[in-house]
Amino acid sequence: MIEPASIFKRASIAVARRALAALAALLLFGLGAPGPAAGQSIPPAGSKPLPYLLNLGDIFALVRYSPGALDRASHVQQRFALLAEDFRKWSKQSVPLSAVLLSRTDWEALDLAVPYGLPAHMANGEVALCAWGDHGTVRLWRALLGGELPQLEGHPLYGSKAEASSLLLNDLLAQGVAARALLNQAGFGGVHPDIVNFTAHVIALAASNLHESLSLGAIRRIYSMTAPDASLGVPSGDGIWRARLASERPYYEAAAALISKRGATKAPKALLKLLRRDGVLLTTRAVADKFPEVRGLLPLSGSRAR
Q1: pLDDT at 97
Q2: I need a labelling partner for 203 at 20 to 30 A (CA). Which of 61, 101, 251, 291 fits?
Q3: Do 137 and 171 contact (CB within 8 A), yes or no?
């Protein structure tokens, strides 16, 4: 089980060099919401811009990480390996995950469109995460949550409790990004985007129920935020990212309803079975007919994916 205290202990502080590449337009957070910058791509794994990254992993999850971030790399590798193994059991497909942990300097030098402190699904399939928490990641999450970060027990080995808490929030959000990466690699990328997004939330939340139930409150808090007041005009700065996270709320709530009704093991297994059977022909309305508990929560459309 992944416990918040262990996340604290594995957190490090930034003295950094910043983080990596840029995400594709429709893969903001890896959850399907359109990002602010289109047409960007990332250097492939092992390419010249980041030759000094170290490797840690097994057949389920590989993590490339900045020197000095081994404790955090070990935690992320454990989290992603559990998720990939769960996905194998539920989908009957073995799909590895890969992540890259970057310093703030590398992140900004490579002009990543997502701010440091939020995860990104890269064009090469990797999930990019910050290697360290710092005052900037704390400020970002305070702005997104509209208040203080979750107060968890334990003492971090490096940095402040707030910095460690910002890493926890980053990782919990990354769970959905990684689930989307698994779906893409497993061949479900052509399914209706709303269904893929919903399925990613089901996979991520089911894994959290199984392995880190003490973090469920923090997950609810992430997805309970509301969008900035539309009467104030188009959001800017942190408001953009708050709006993006608020747009994920219906998918999260539908996923929570499905898991509450069918359980953390049966829910993803049944949903993935439906995806395998109907593929690109599946509509969101058909999903709601199959799983009545999500009706009224999951955005409905009778159209198929193109």
Answers
A1: 96
A2: 101
A3: no
Q: Measure Cα distances from 255 to 32, 248, 264, 291, 297 in Å.
A: 16, 11, 10, 11, 9
Mean pLDDT of the residues in the chain: 82
In the chain the first and final C-alpha atoms are separated, in Å, by 40
Distance CA 64, CA 60 (A): 14
Torsion, Cα 3 96 279 121, to 10 degrees, reads 70
Exposure pattern of 179-204 as b/e (b: 16+ CB <10 Å)? bbbbbbbbebeebbbbbbbbbbbbbb
The DSSP element (H or E) to which 65 belongs, if any, is strand 61-65
State which amino acid sits at residue 303.
S
Residue 2: the pLDDT is: 58
Q: What is the pLDDT of residue 24?
A: 28
User: How many angstroms separate the CA atoms of 292 and 296, rounded?
Assistant: 9
DSSP code per residue over 106-156 = HHHHTT-SSPTTS-EEBTTSPEEEESSB-HHHHHHHHHHHTSPPP--SS--
- Number of Cβ within 10 Å of residue 303's Cβ equals 10
Q: Extract the residue ranges of the chain whose pLDDT is less than 50.
A: 4-28, 30-48, 305-306
Integer CA distances (angstroms), 56 to 43, 67, 70, 295, 301, in order: 19, 12, 8, 42, 42
Q: How deeply is 160 buried, as exposed, middle or buried, from its count of CB atoms within 10 A (0-12, 13-18, 19+)?
A: middle
Predicted local confidence at residue 209, as pLDDT? 97
Q: Are strands 120-121 and 54-57 parallel, antiparallel or unpaired?
A: unpaired
Q: What pLDDT is attached to residue 44?
A: 42
What tokens were used for 190? Answer: 């052509």
Domains identified in the chain and CATH numbers? 4-294 (1.10.390)
